[in-house]
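[job 0412] stage=complex_fold ligand=magnesium ion status=START
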Amino acid sequence: MIINPFTYGNPISDAARFVGRERQVEQIFSRLRNVEFESSSIVGERRIGKTSLLYYIADEQVRRAHGLAPDAFIFVYADLALLDATTTRTRLWQYLLRQMLLHLGENDAAFVRAVLREPDALDNFALAEVFDHLDAQNKHVVLLLDEFENVTRNENFTPDFFYGLRSLAIHHRLALITSSRRELIELTHSNEIRSSPFFNIFANINVRLLNADDARALLENALGETAVRFAPTEIENVLRVAGTHPFFLQTACHFLFQAHAENLSAAARDAFWREKFRAEALPHLGEYWRHCDEREKSVLAALALLHTQDTRFATAPLRDFVTRSERVLAQLDKRALVVAHGDAFAPFNELFRNFILDVLDDNGFVQALESNIHYPITNIQSFGLSPRELEVLELVATGLTDAEVARKLVLSPRTVSTHLQSIYNKLGVNSRAAATRVAVEKGLAAREPGAQGKM
Ligand SMILES: Nc1ncnc2c1ncn2[C@@H]1O[C@H](COP(=O)(O)OP(=O)(O)O)[C@@H](O)[C@H]1O
Ligand SMILES: [Mg+2]
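[job 0412] stage=complex_fold status=DONE, emitting C-alpha coordinates
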Protein backbone atom coordinates (compact mmCIF):
# COMPACT_ATOMS: atom_id res chain seq x y z
CA MET A 1 0.00 0.00 0.00
CA ILE A 2 1.62 3.26 -1.16
CA ILE A 3 0.62 6.39 0.74
CA ASN A 4 -0.04 9.37 -1.48
CA PRO A 5 2.02 12.29 -0.08
CA PHE A 6 -0.17 14.89 -1.81
CA THR A 7 -3.35 15.84 -0.01
CA TYR A 8 -6.02 18.36 -0.82
CA GLY A 9 -9.12 19.41 1.04
CA ASN A 10 -7.86 19.20 4.61
CA PRO A 11 -5.47 21.85 5.84
CA ILE A 12 -1.82 20.87 6.28
CA SER A 13 -1.43 19.85 9.92
CA ASP A 14 2.15 18.55 9.83
CA ALA A 15 4.61 21.47 9.86
CA ALA A 16 7.12 19.40 7.87
CA ARG A 17 4.69 19.30 4.93
CA PHE A 18 4.05 23.04 4.95
CA VAL A 19 5.93 24.97 2.25
CA GLY A 20 6.64 28.64 1.62
CA ARG A 21 4.98 31.63 3.29
CA GLU A 22 8.27 32.58 5.01
CA ARG A 23 7.61 36.30 4.76
CA GLN A 24 4.08 36.07 6.16
CA VAL A 25 5.17 33.77 8.98
CA GLU A 26 8.03 36.08 9.93
CA GLN A 27 5.72 39.11 9.81
CA ILE A 28 3.24 37.46 12.16
CA PHE A 29 5.90 36.30 14.62
CA SER A 30 7.73 39.61 14.60
CA ARG A 31 4.48 41.29 15.65
CA LEU A 32 4.15 38.75 18.48
CA ARG A 33 7.75 39.26 19.63
CA ASN A 34 7.20 42.99 19.69
CA VAL A 35 6.68 44.45 23.22
CA GLU A 36 3.19 45.52 22.19
CA PHE A 37 2.35 41.88 21.33
CA GLU A 38 0.51 42.87 18.17
CA SER A 39 -2.32 41.21 16.27
CA SER A 40 -2.47 40.19 12.59
CA SER A 41 -5.27 39.59 10.13
CA ILE A 42 -4.61 36.92 7.50
CA VAL A 43 -6.51 37.59 4.30
CA GLY A 44 -6.86 35.26 1.34
CA GLU A 45 -9.36 33.48 -0.90
CA ARG A 46 -10.86 30.14 -0.04
CA ARG A 47 -8.37 27.25 -0.24
CA ILE A 48 -5.28 29.47 -0.59
CA GLY A 49 -3.86 28.04 2.65
CA LYS A 50 -5.05 30.22 5.55
CA THR A 51 -5.94 27.40 7.94
CA SER A 52 -2.70 25.62 7.07
CA LEU A 53 -0.84 28.82 7.95
CA LEU A 54 -2.65 29.11 11.30
CA TYR A 55 -1.83 25.47 12.12
CA TYR A 56 1.78 26.06 11.17
CA ILE A 57 2.08 29.09 13.43
CA ALA A 58 0.56 27.16 16.31
CA ASP A 59 3.13 24.36 16.00
CA GLU A 60 5.34 24.30 19.08
CA GLN A 61 8.63 23.78 17.26
CA VAL A 62 7.83 26.54 14.80
CA ARG A 63 6.97 28.93 17.63
CA ARG A 64 10.19 28.09 19.41
CA ALA A 65 12.21 28.56 16.21
CA HIS A 66 10.68 32.04 15.93
CA GLY A 67 11.65 33.01 19.43
CA LEU A 68 8.50 32.35 21.47
CA ALA A 69 9.18 30.23 24.57
CA PRO A 70 6.43 27.58 24.65
CA ASP A 71 5.61 27.84 28.36
CA ALA A 72 4.94 31.58 28.27
CA PHE A 73 2.60 31.42 25.27
CA ILE A 74 -0.79 29.79 24.92
CA PHE A 75 -2.03 29.33 21.36
CA VAL A 76 -5.71 28.56 20.97
CA TYR A 77 -7.17 27.71 17.56
CA ALA A 78 -10.90 28.21 16.95
CA ASP A 79 -12.75 27.25 13.79
CA LEU A 80 -15.41 29.94 13.62
CA ALA A 81 -17.21 28.20 10.77
CA LEU A 82 -18.92 26.48 13.72
CA LEU A 83 -20.80 29.69 14.50
CA ASP A 84 -24.43 29.91 13.51
CA ALA A 85 -27.24 32.42 13.83
CA THR A 86 -27.90 31.33 17.43
CA THR A 87 -24.31 31.69 18.67
CA THR A 88 -23.97 34.47 21.20
CA ARG A 89 -20.98 36.45 22.41
CA THR A 90 -21.11 34.57 25.73
CA ARG A 91 -21.13 31.21 23.99
CA LEU A 92 -18.06 32.12 21.96
CA TRP A 93 -16.16 33.31 25.04
CA GLN A 94 -17.10 30.14 26.92
CA TYR A 95 -15.65 28.12 24.08
CA LEU A 96 -12.44 30.16 23.89
CA LEU A 97 -11.90 30.12 27.66
CA ARG A 98 -12.45 26.36 27.85
CA GLN A 99 -9.90 25.88 25.07
CA MET A 100 -7.46 28.08 27.01
CA LEU A 101 -8.07 25.99 30.13
CA LEU A 102 -6.53 22.98 28.44
CA HIS A 103 -3.18 24.74 28.36
CA LEU A 104 -3.18 26.13 31.90
CA GLY A 105 -1.71 24.82 35.12
CA GLU A 106 -4.09 23.81 37.92
CA ASN A 107 -4.16 27.17 39.76
CA ASP A 108 -4.76 29.29 36.68
CA ALA A 109 -7.30 26.79 35.40
CA ALA A 110 -9.21 27.00 38.68
CA PHE A 111 -9.44 30.77 38.29
CA VAL A 112 -10.86 30.51 34.78
CA ARG A 113 -13.25 27.72 35.78
CA ALA A 114 -14.69 29.91 38.50
CA VAL A 115 -15.44 32.61 35.93
CA LEU A 116 -17.01 30.07 33.58
CA ARG A 117 -19.34 28.88 36.32
CA GLU A 118 -21.32 32.12 36.06
CA PRO A 119 -22.04 32.58 32.36
CA ASP A 120 -24.50 35.41 33.08
CA ALA A 121 -21.65 37.42 34.57
CA LEU A 122 -19.27 36.79 31.66
CA ASP A 123 -19.07 40.45 30.65
CA ASN A 124 -16.05 42.49 29.54
CA PHE A 125 -15.09 43.10 33.19
CA ALA A 126 -15.01 39.40 33.95
CA LEU A 127 -12.84 38.84 30.90
CA ALA A 128 -10.51 41.66 31.93
CA GLU A 129 -10.11 39.92 35.29
CA VAL A 130 -9.23 36.64 33.60
CA PHE A 131 -6.56 38.33 31.49
CA ASP A 132 -5.30 40.37 34.51
CA HIS A 133 -4.76 37.08 36.26
CA LEU A 134 -2.91 35.54 33.29
CA ASP A 135 -0.81 38.73 32.86
CA ALA A 136 0.34 38.35 36.45
CA GLN A 137 1.48 34.79 35.66
CA ASN A 138 3.34 36.06 32.57
CA LYS A 139 1.07 34.03 30.29
CA HIS A 140 0.63 35.37 26.76
CA VAL A 141 -2.48 34.28 24.92
CA VAL A 142 -2.72 34.10 21.12
CA LEU A 143 -6.20 33.42 19.76
CA LEU A 144 -6.16 31.98 16.24
CA LEU A 145 -9.59 32.88 14.93
CA ASP A 146 -10.17 31.07 11.64
CA GLU A 147 -12.86 32.44 9.30
CA PHE A 148 -13.43 35.41 11.55
CA GLU A 149 -15.91 36.92 9.09
CA ASN A 150 -18.41 34.56 10.68
CA VAL A 151 -18.15 36.83 13.73
CA THR A 152 -17.94 40.23 12.02
CA ARG A 153 -20.99 39.40 9.90
CA ASN A 154 -23.01 37.86 12.71
CA GLU A 155 -25.64 40.28 13.99
CA ASN A 156 -25.38 38.80 17.51
CA PHE A 157 -21.96 40.39 17.78
CA THR A 158 -22.65 44.04 18.44
CA PRO A 159 -20.10 46.88 18.62
CA ASP A 160 -19.69 46.21 22.40
CA PHE A 161 -18.15 42.86 21.60
CA PHE A 162 -15.57 44.39 19.29
CA TYR A 163 -14.77 47.29 21.67
CA GLY A 164 -14.30 44.74 24.45
CA LEU A 165 -12.04 42.52 22.38
CA ARG A 166 -9.95 45.49 21.27
CA SER A 167 -9.57 46.69 24.83
CA LEU A 168 -8.46 43.21 25.99
CA ALA A 169 -5.90 43.04 23.18
CA ILE A 170 -4.56 46.51 23.95
CA HIS A 171 -4.35 46.27 27.73
CA HIS A 172 -3.43 42.63 28.23
CA ARG A 173 -1.07 39.99 26.91
CA LEU A 174 -3.60 38.96 24.33
CA ALA A 175 -3.01 38.91 20.56
CA LEU A 176 -5.43 37.88 17.84
CA ILE A 177 -4.57 36.21 14.55
CA THR A 178 -7.69 36.17 12.41
CA SER A 179 -8.24 34.70 8.97
CA SER A 180 -10.84 35.82 6.48
CA ARG A 181 -11.63 35.69 2.80
CA ARG A 182 -11.56 39.45 2.34
CA GLU A 183 -10.30 42.25 4.54
CA LEU A 184 -12.37 42.18 7.72
CA ILE A 185 -13.51 45.73 7.29
CA GLU A 186 -15.30 44.67 4.08
CA LEU A 187 -17.07 41.87 5.91
CA THR A 188 -19.02 43.56 8.69
CA HIS A 189 -22.76 43.48 9.26
CA SER A 190 -23.13 47.16 10.07
CA ASN A 191 -21.54 50.55 9.44
CA GLU A 192 -21.10 51.06 13.13
CA ILE A 193 -18.78 48.05 13.29
CA ARG A 194 -17.03 48.99 10.07
CA SER A 195 -16.13 52.39 11.49
CA SER A 196 -15.13 51.10 14.94
CA PRO A 197 -11.45 51.35 15.88
CA PHE A 198 -11.39 47.56 16.38
CA PHE A 199 -9.76 46.95 13.00
CA ASN A 200 -6.88 49.33 13.76
CA ILE A 201 -5.19 46.75 15.97
CA PHE A 202 -4.43 44.48 13.00
CA ALA A 203 -1.85 44.43 10.24
CA ASN A 204 -3.18 42.72 7.12
CA ILE A 205 -1.18 39.72 5.97
CA ASN A 206 -2.11 38.67 2.43
CA VAL A 207 -1.85 35.04 1.43
CA ARG A 208 -1.50 34.66 -2.34
CA LEU A 209 -0.16 32.13 -4.84
CA LEU A 210 3.08 30.34 -3.97
CA ASN A 211 6.12 31.61 -5.82
CA ALA A 212 7.59 29.30 -8.47
CA ASP A 213 10.40 28.05 -6.21
CA ASP A 214 8.02 27.17 -3.39
CA ALA A 215 5.72 25.38 -5.82
CA ARG A 216 8.62 23.20 -6.98
CA ALA A 217 9.71 22.71 -3.37
CA LEU A 218 6.21 21.43 -2.59
CA LEU A 219 6.62 18.70 -5.21
CA GLU A 220 10.17 17.75 -4.24
CA ASN A 221 9.39 17.80 -0.57
CA ALA A 222 6.43 15.45 -0.98
CA LEU A 223 8.10 13.08 -3.45
CA GLY A 224 11.27 12.99 -1.38
CA GLU A 225 9.89 10.32 0.95
CA THR A 226 8.65 8.13 -1.91
CA ALA A 227 10.14 6.06 -4.72
CA VAL A 228 8.06 7.93 -7.31
CA ARG A 229 9.66 10.58 -9.53
CA PHE A 230 7.63 12.77 -11.88
CA ALA A 231 9.10 13.28 -15.36
CA PRO A 232 10.31 16.84 -16.08
CA THR A 233 7.54 17.37 -18.68
CA GLU A 234 4.97 16.13 -16.16
CA ILE A 235 6.18 18.70 -13.67
CA GLU A 236 5.95 21.48 -16.26
CA ASN A 237 2.46 20.37 -17.29
CA VAL A 238 1.21 20.24 -13.72
CA LEU A 239 2.62 23.69 -12.97
CA ARG A 240 0.96 25.11 -16.06
CA VAL A 241 -2.46 23.48 -15.70
CA ALA A 242 -2.77 23.82 -11.91
CA GLY A 243 -0.54 26.87 -11.41
CA THR A 244 1.32 27.63 -8.19
CA HIS A 245 -1.86 27.67 -6.14
CA PRO A 246 -1.22 25.21 -3.29
CA PHE A 247 -4.68 23.63 -3.33
CA PHE A 248 -4.79 23.08 -7.10
CA LEU A 249 -1.17 21.98 -7.19
CA GLN A 250 -1.73 19.40 -4.44
CA THR A 251 -4.86 18.16 -6.23
CA ALA A 252 -3.14 17.74 -9.60
CA CYS A 253 -0.09 16.09 -8.03
CA HIS A 254 -2.30 13.78 -6.00
CA PHE A 255 -3.73 12.27 -9.18
CA LEU A 256 -0.44 12.25 -11.05
CA PHE A 257 1.08 10.40 -8.10
CA GLN A 258 -1.81 7.93 -8.11
CA ALA A 259 -1.23 7.28 -11.82
CA HIS A 260 2.44 6.56 -11.10
CA ALA A 261 1.57 4.32 -8.17
CA GLU A 262 -0.74 2.33 -10.44
CA ASN A 263 2.09 1.90 -12.95
CA LEU A 264 0.17 3.46 -15.84
CA SER A 265 2.00 4.26 -19.08
CA ALA A 266 3.13 7.86 -19.64
CA ALA A 267 0.20 8.58 -21.97
CA ALA A 268 -2.33 6.98 -19.62
CA ARG A 269 -0.92 8.93 -16.65
CA ASP A 270 -1.30 12.17 -18.55
CA ALA A 271 -4.93 11.48 -19.43
CA PHE A 272 -5.70 10.22 -15.92
CA TRP A 273 -4.50 13.17 -13.86
CA ARG A 274 -5.89 15.78 -16.25
CA GLU A 275 -9.34 14.24 -16.20
CA LYS A 276 -9.47 13.73 -12.41
CA PHE A 277 -8.00 17.15 -11.73
CA ARG A 278 -10.50 18.84 -13.99
CA ALA A 279 -13.45 17.17 -12.28
CA GLU A 280 -12.16 18.09 -8.84
CA ALA A 281 -11.13 21.66 -9.69
CA LEU A 282 -13.99 22.95 -11.86
CA PRO A 283 -16.58 23.45 -9.10
CA HIS A 284 -14.06 25.53 -7.14
CA LEU A 285 -13.22 27.63 -10.18
CA GLY A 286 -16.93 28.18 -10.74
CA GLU A 287 -17.25 29.38 -7.19
CA TYR A 288 -14.38 31.87 -7.59
CA TRP A 289 -16.00 33.11 -10.80
CA ARG A 290 -19.39 33.59 -9.17
CA HIS A 291 -17.75 35.58 -6.39
CA CYS A 292 -16.24 38.02 -8.89
CA ASP A 293 -17.95 41.33 -9.47
CA GLU A 294 -18.58 42.45 -13.03
CA ARG A 295 -15.35 44.38 -13.37
CA GLU A 296 -13.32 41.43 -12.16
CA LYS A 297 -15.09 39.16 -14.63
CA SER A 298 -14.42 41.56 -17.47
CA VAL A 299 -10.71 41.82 -16.71
CA LEU A 300 -10.39 38.05 -16.30
CA ALA A 301 -12.19 37.59 -19.60
CA ALA A 302 -9.81 39.98 -21.34
CA LEU A 303 -6.78 38.20 -19.86
CA ALA A 304 -8.09 34.78 -20.88
CA LEU A 305 -8.70 36.00 -24.43
CA LEU A 306 -5.29 37.64 -24.65
CA HIS A 307 -3.68 34.33 -23.82
CA THR A 308 -5.47 32.31 -26.48
CA GLN A 309 -3.02 33.64 -29.09
CA ASP A 310 -6.04 33.66 -31.38
CA THR A 311 -5.21 35.75 -34.44
CA ARG A 312 -8.82 36.04 -35.59
CA PHE A 313 -9.55 39.12 -33.52
CA ALA A 314 -7.72 42.32 -32.66
CA THR A 315 -6.04 42.22 -29.28
CA ALA A 316 -5.15 45.91 -28.96
CA PRO A 317 -8.53 46.95 -27.46
CA LEU A 318 -8.28 44.12 -24.92
CA ARG A 319 -4.76 45.17 -24.00
CA ASP A 320 -5.93 48.77 -23.56
CA PHE A 321 -8.79 47.64 -21.40
CA VAL A 322 -6.46 45.63 -19.13
CA THR A 323 -4.00 48.52 -18.84
CA ARG A 324 -6.81 50.81 -17.74
CA SER A 325 -7.94 48.29 -15.10
CA GLU A 326 -4.99 48.52 -12.76
CA ARG A 327 -7.03 48.62 -9.58
CA VAL A 328 -9.12 45.59 -10.54
CA LEU A 329 -5.94 43.70 -11.44
CA ALA A 330 -4.49 44.46 -8.03
CA GLN A 331 -7.67 43.12 -6.47
CA LEU A 332 -7.53 39.94 -8.57
CA ASP A 333 -3.87 39.54 -7.65
CA LYS A 334 -4.79 39.71 -3.95
CA ARG A 335 -7.41 37.05 -4.53
CA ALA A 336 -4.79 34.84 -6.24
CA LEU A 337 -6.96 34.66 -9.36
CA VAL A 338 -4.24 36.05 -11.62
CA VAL A 339 -0.55 35.35 -11.91
CA ALA A 340 2.12 37.79 -13.09
CA HIS A 341 4.29 36.75 -16.04
CA GLY A 342 6.86 39.50 -16.17
CA ASP A 343 4.73 42.64 -16.26
CA ALA A 344 1.73 40.93 -17.87
CA PHE A 345 -0.97 39.06 -16.00
CA ALA A 346 -2.81 35.83 -16.83
CA PRO A 347 -5.56 33.80 -15.14
CA PHE A 348 -3.80 31.88 -12.34
CA ASN A 349 -3.81 28.54 -14.13
CA GLU A 350 -4.62 27.07 -17.50
CA LEU A 351 -7.77 25.30 -16.37
CA PHE A 352 -9.19 28.58 -15.05
CA ARG A 353 -8.33 30.26 -18.35
CA ASN A 354 -10.17 27.57 -20.28
CA PHE A 355 -13.08 27.76 -17.87
CA ILE A 356 -13.38 31.50 -18.56
CA LEU A 357 -13.19 30.94 -22.33
CA ASP A 358 -16.04 28.43 -22.02
CA VAL A 359 -18.14 30.97 -20.14
CA LEU A 360 -17.43 33.51 -22.89
CA ASP A 361 -18.38 31.01 -25.57
CA ASP A 362 -21.68 30.39 -23.82
CA ASN A 363 -22.25 34.14 -23.92
CA GLY A 364 -21.64 34.29 -27.68
CA PHE A 365 -18.72 36.49 -26.84
CA VAL A 366 -15.92 34.91 -28.82
CA GLN A 367 -18.11 34.56 -31.92
CA ALA A 368 -18.95 38.25 -31.69
CA LEU A 369 -15.28 39.17 -31.48
CA GLU A 370 -14.50 37.00 -34.48
CA SER A 371 -17.19 38.71 -36.57
CA ASN A 372 -15.94 42.10 -35.39
CA ILE A 373 -19.26 42.89 -33.77
CA HIS A 374 -18.96 45.41 -31.00
CA TYR A 375 -19.80 43.52 -27.83
CA PRO A 376 -18.93 45.42 -24.67
CA ILE A 377 -16.90 43.19 -22.43
CA THR A 378 -19.02 44.28 -19.48
CA ASN A 379 -21.91 42.30 -20.97
CA ILE A 380 -20.77 39.32 -18.99
CA GLN A 381 -23.19 40.07 -16.32
CA SER A 382 -24.17 39.31 -12.81
CA PHE A 383 -27.32 41.41 -13.35
CA GLY A 384 -26.01 44.01 -10.93
CA LEU A 385 -26.36 41.58 -8.02
CA SER A 386 -24.13 42.33 -5.05
CA PRO A 387 -21.71 39.62 -3.86
CA ARG A 388 -24.01 39.00 -0.88
CA GLU A 389 -27.05 38.65 -3.16
CA LEU A 390 -25.13 36.22 -5.33
CA GLU A 391 -24.36 34.17 -2.24
CA VAL A 392 -28.02 34.11 -1.25
CA LEU A 393 -29.10 33.24 -4.78
CA GLU A 394 -26.55 30.44 -4.99
CA LEU A 395 -27.93 28.84 -1.84
CA VAL A 396 -31.56 29.39 -2.83
CA ALA A 397 -30.77 27.69 -6.14
CA THR A 398 -29.66 24.59 -4.26
CA GLY A 399 -33.15 24.36 -2.80
CA LEU A 400 -32.53 25.73 0.71
CA THR A 401 -35.34 27.53 2.55
CA ASP A 402 -34.96 31.12 3.78
CA ALA A 403 -34.30 29.84 7.28
CA GLU A 404 -31.62 27.44 6.06
CA VAL A 405 -29.97 30.16 3.98
CA ALA A 406 -30.06 32.47 7.01
CA ARG A 407 -28.34 29.85 9.16
CA LYS A 408 -25.65 29.19 6.57
CA LEU A 409 -24.82 32.84 6.02
CA VAL A 410 -25.29 33.80 9.65
CA LEU A 411 -28.01 36.31 8.84
CA SER A 412 -31.50 36.82 10.20
CA PRO A 413 -34.27 35.26 8.06
CA ARG A 414 -35.63 38.77 7.61
CA THR A 415 -32.38 39.96 6.07
CA VAL A 416 -32.47 36.97 3.73
CA SER A 417 -35.96 37.79 2.54
CA THR A 418 -34.91 41.41 1.95
CA HIS A 419 -32.02 40.17 -0.18
CA LEU A 420 -34.37 37.84 -2.05
CA GLN A 421 -36.76 40.68 -2.84
CA SER A 422 -33.90 42.71 -4.25
CA ILE A 423 -32.72 39.69 -6.28
CA TYR A 424 -36.24 39.25 -7.74
CA ASN A 425 -36.29 42.93 -8.71
CA LYS A 426 -32.91 42.82 -10.39
CA LEU A 427 -33.66 39.60 -12.26
CA GLY A 428 -37.19 40.71 -13.15
CA VAL A 429 -38.84 37.63 -11.64
CA ASN A 430 -41.23 37.04 -8.79
CA SER A 431 -40.63 33.53 -7.49
CA ARG A 432 -37.85 31.38 -6.11
CA ALA A 433 -38.33 28.90 -8.93
CA ALA A 434 -37.92 31.59 -11.58
CA ALA A 435 -34.92 33.09 -9.81
CA THR A 436 -33.33 29.65 -9.63
CA ARG A 437 -33.99 29.03 -13.31
CA VAL A 438 -32.38 32.35 -14.30
CA ALA A 439 -29.47 31.72 -11.94
CA VAL A 440 -28.72 28.32 -13.42
CA GLU A 441 -29.26 29.43 -17.03
CA LYS A 442 -27.01 32.45 -16.69
CA GLY A 443 -24.32 30.59 -14.83
CA LEU A 444 -24.84 32.55 -11.61
CA ALA A 445 -25.30 29.32 -9.70
CA ALA A 446 -24.58 25.69 -10.32
CA ARG A 447 -27.44 23.21 -10.65
CA GLU A 448 -27.33 20.97 -7.62
CA PRO A 449 -28.56 17.42 -7.79
CA GLY A 450 -31.91 17.24 -6.05
CA ALA A 451 -32.60 20.97 -6.29
CA GLN A 452 -35.32 20.37 -8.85
CA GLY A 453 -37.65 18.54 -6.50
CA LYS A 454 -37.75 21.35 -4.00
CA MET A 455 -38.41 24.14 -6.50
N1 LIG B 1 1.80 26.06 2.79
C1 LIG B 1 1.26 24.98 2.18
N2 LIG B 1 2.05 23.92 1.85
C2 LIG B 1 1.53 22.86 1.22
N3 LIG B 1 0.21 22.74 0.89
C3 LIG B 1 -0.62 23.75 1.21
C4 LIG B 1 -0.14 24.91 1.87
N4 LIG B 1 -1.18 25.73 2.05
C5 LIG B 1 -2.27 25.14 1.54
N5 LIG B 1 -1.95 23.93 1.02
C6 LIG B 1 -2.89 23.03 0.33
O1 LIG B 1 -4.07 23.79 0.02
C7 LIG B 1 -5.24 23.21 0.61
C8 LIG B 1 -6.11 24.30 1.18
O2 LIG B 1 -5.48 24.87 2.31
P1 LIG B 1 -6.30 25.47 3.54
O3 LIG B 1 -5.30 25.85 4.56
O4 LIG B 1 -7.40 24.57 3.94
O5 LIG B 1 -6.90 26.78 2.84
P2 LIG B 1 -7.95 27.87 3.40
O6 LIG B 1 -8.00 27.75 4.89
O7 LIG B 1 -7.38 29.18 2.95
O8 LIG B 1 -9.26 27.58 2.73
C9 LIG B 1 -4.72 22.22 1.64
O9 LIG B 1 -5.55 21.08 1.64
C10 LIG B 1 -3.34 21.85 1.13
O10 LIG B 1 -3.45 20.76 0.27
MG1 LIG C 1 -9.64 27.29 6.07
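The domain at 387-454 is CATH 1.10.10.10 (Arc Repressor Mutant, subunit A).
[job 0412] exit 0
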